[in-house]
Design a protein that fits this description.
With 151 residues, the chain is an alpha+beta fold. The protein has one domain: Gcn5-related N-acetyltransferase (GNAT) (Aminopeptidase, 3-Layer(aba) Sandwich). It is 34% helix and 36% strand. The protein has a 7-stranded mixed β-sheet with strand order 1-2-3-4-5-7-6. Helix 4 links the parallel strand 4 and strand 5. The two termini are 28 Å apart.
Length: 151
């Protein structure tokens, strides 16, 4: 089941924070870069990130989440996390579809991921996103930027 994350539910927020750390640690290993901002932030910083979150719950357990911001008619996907125990079950695909439907008036959707994160890049390309650039954000570390224009 997909639903908005209730920021008043302390246990859900703490579980989401833990899930984020688990998921980004897998990505860090994959791309060989451990300074990913979500791995560095404190619980307090996380609580104050200003992003909206949608969660995917499997039998009442938080199995994944996506966060986003909206500015005018532009939606930016900020975080996509899936519990490693739930990889390869279509959760990221479902979350991506859900976030795209949250603001149907958005004309463009942006997302980025580590250049070497092949599974994430494949997900975005498969869903109509176009690679717009690879930018160096730290010495010898690149982020791939994607966008999807909606008609």
């Amino acid at each position: 089941m997909i639903q908005n994350i209730d920021w008043q539910d302390d246990s859900i927020v703490k579980r989401l924070y833990q899930l984020q750390r688990e998921a980004y640690l897998v990505e860090a290993r994959l791309i060989n870069f451990y300074d990913i901002p979500p791995l560095q932030e404190t619980l307090s910083e996380f609580r104050n990130c200003g992003e909206s979150f949608i969660g995917f719950f499997e039998q009442g357990e938080l199995a994944g989440a996506v966060s986003y911001t909206v500015d005018s008619q532009e939606l930016t996907i900020c975080r996509m996390v899936v519990d490693p125990n739930f990889f390869r079950k279509g959760i990221a695909q479902n979350l991506l579809a859900a976030v795209e439907n949250v603001h149907p008036d958005s004309k463009v959707i942006y997302v980025s991921t580590g250049k070497d994160n092949i599974p994430a890049k494949s997900l975005y390309l498969k869903n109509g996103f176009k690679l717009t650039s690879d930018i160096e954000v730290a010495p010898n570390f690149y982020m791939s930027q994607f966008q999807k224009k909606k008609e």
